[in-house]
Design goal:
The complex is a heterodimer of chains A (87) and B (418). Chain A is mostly beta strands and 87 residues long. Chain A is built from one helix and six strands. In chain A, the strands form two sheets. Chain A has a four-stranded antiparallel beta sheet, with no helix packed on it. Chain A has a two-stranded antiparallel sheet with strand order 1-2. Chain B has ten helices and 18 strands. Classes of the chains: A mainly beta (87), B alpha/beta (418). At the A-B interface, strand 3 and helix 1 of A face helix 8, strand 12 and strand 15 of B. The complex binds zinc ion. Zinc ion binds next to loops of chain A.
């Protein structure tokens, strides 16, 4: 099990979180059809580091971007997204 | 290659069994092959075998980064069946199931295929309707399927918890009697021996690190053992498809995830068939050695790590114990996990890529092992002719942008479907 450093709650057990999707597959509302298609149906899927959207579902319920290595599971970053991340 | 037979064993007995030879060669890579297959798992080796056997091609190499059969071929639950609801799926897997039934003879290698019956459990009225519909769809295409009553299920598998207040009450089932299990290693080794004897070079410890391009075409591969030229290149590395296709600049409709399985200590026969529940996502069978093999859901986040997380394993164990309470008396002796290509409609991808002379076979989700012969046979056709085989044509890479997904779960054309 991983320990994910929630930007709001601190390090918490992975079982409190749910993986949503990768950052490269978040579709902007104004994306043209081709871009939407690519983002919905394809992934970079690297055998290395990628940015992922996770949600602290059984905690603060906030969404966040976790930067994680896909082989070692090492988490090198976790930052908040959404209005609470605004200055 | 000498044929294996009872006589050769007997003859060997007189000479202390000193007659055994390596089952395949260990050749140095040549500078050029007509066809290079990346990935020496069951699918890649089967592809090479059928390329040589059916299409008469000789100048073929299989490149494997580790040792053959050391990836997902050795990391599954060895279940073989063709009981899918949708026509493209059950027709492809049924073609494979027919090959499975003659595979040991075909390869002169005992793959220990054991058609003991593959049974889905129904836990509710809705489940039973779905199972009946699936069985009807299969029988329309001439594939065997029998709906079982609750009593029939109880008779076949006495150790299932059939009580009315069971955690997952059982109302009935759907059995495919021609389904079963096989020996995973033997499938890879049998195809390897067969392909090698037909002239295929199987090159192990040879990882592909890049593609050699000439304009819009692939003309070879860079490997840890040097550059090798090729007329056509077939990717066959399910689990690592995203990584290898990425070397050619392709972005696939695939996310790699870990799928775990586990086995108990060996005991006398206690599970007669392959017990599966798709409502729970749980599958249980007993190996010929006596170990009870079971598995559950994938770890639902991307991973290339060939090891799983305990919390997912715990879920699989909880399901297994709820269905077969007697399992609680057994010790778990081994767990493993494979990296699976999860495609966005749950179906495989076989066919051309946007890069000329580069082909793809992947996206097998949880279902690759059973498809090994069918995957190899139809992919060999595609690599030999450059065109789809009738059975793999529906599984083309461009089906997502065309909206022609093959969505077995019936959840609609959703990304992240699995
Ligand atoms: Zn939190």
């Amino acid at each position: 099990m991983m320990r994910i450093p929630c930007p709001h709650c601190g390090p918490r057990a992975q079982s409190e979180f749910i993986y949503e999707r990768t950052v490269d597959s978040v579709v902007p509302l104004n994306a043209p059809p081709e871009e939407a298609m690519t983002k919905l149906f394809t992934r970079n899927n690297p055998r290395g580091v990628d940015d992922e959207v996770w949600r602290h579902t059984y905690g603060c319920r906030a969404w966040m971007i976790v930067t994680r290595h896909r082989v070692t599971n090492e988490i090198s970053g976790c930052r908040a997204i959404g209005p609470e991340a605004l200055p | 290659m000498s044929r294996y037979s009872a006589f050769s064993l007997l003859r060997g007995a007189l000479t202390g069994q000193r007659h055994w030879q390596p089952a395949w060669r260990d050749p140095e890579p040549k500078s050029h092959y007509d066809i290079i297959i990346i990935g020496g798992g069951g699918h890649g080796l089967a592809t090479a075998y059928y390329l040589a056997k059916v299409h008469g091609l000789k100048n073929i190499a299989v490149l494997e980064k580790g040792w053959i059969g050391g990836g997902n071929t050795g990391r599954n639950t060895t279940i073989v069946r063709s009981n899918y609801r949708l026509e493209p799926l059950h027709n492809l897997f049924e073609f494979g199931l027919k090959l499975w039934h003659g595979l040991s003879d075909e390869l002169n290698y005992n793959v220990m295929f054991s058609p003991r019956g593959a049974m889905f459990l129904g836990h509710s009225d809705a489940d039973m309707v779905k199972l009946a519909e699936r069985g009807d769809a299969m029988r329309c295409d001439g594939i065997d399927a029998d709906l079982l009553t609750r009593d029939q299920v109880a008779k076949l598998e006495p150790l299932l918890d059939m009580s009315r207040d069971a955690r997952f009450p059982i109302q009935g089932g759907l059995i495919q009697r021609r389904g079963g299990t096989a020996r995973h290693d033997a499938v890879a080794w049998g195809y390897a021996r067969g392909a090698d004897s037909l002239g295929v070079d199987i090159i192990q410890k040879c990882e592909v690190t890049g593609f050699v391009r000439d304009g819009d075409a692939v003309v070879g591969v860079e490997t840890t053992r040097g550059r090798i030229g090729a007329g056509r290149v077939g990717i066959c590395v399910a689990g690592n498809s995203g990584h290898v296709a990425g070397l050619a600049g392709l972005k696939l409709p695939i996310e790699s995830q870990t799928l775990q399985a586990m086995v108990t200590e060996g005991v006398k026969p206690m599970i007669n068939s392959v017990i599966m529940s798709q409502s729970l996502h749980c599958y249980i069978s007993q190996s010929d050695k006596g170990g009870v093999v079971f598995g559950g859901d994938p770890d639902n986040w991307p991973s290339y790590a060939q090891r799983g997380h305990p919390m997912v394993m715990e879920g699989a164990v909880a399901q297994g114990l709820a269905l077969v309470p007697a399992l609680s008396r057994l010790r778990m002796v081994r767990t493993w996990s494979g990296v699976t290509d999860m495609s966005f409609d749950g179906a495989p991808i076989i066919g051309e890529t946007p890069v000329r002379n580069l082909f793809l076979n992947g996206g097998w989700c949880y279902g690759g092992f059973k498809a090994t012969p069918a995957s190899g046979y139809t992919y060999a056709h595609t690599l030999a002719t450059g065109k789809p085989h009738a059975l793999n044509a529906p599984f083309s890479l461009d089906r997502f942008e065309r909206g022609a997904t093959i969505d077995e779960t019936g959840s609609g054309p959703m990304p992240n479907s699995r």
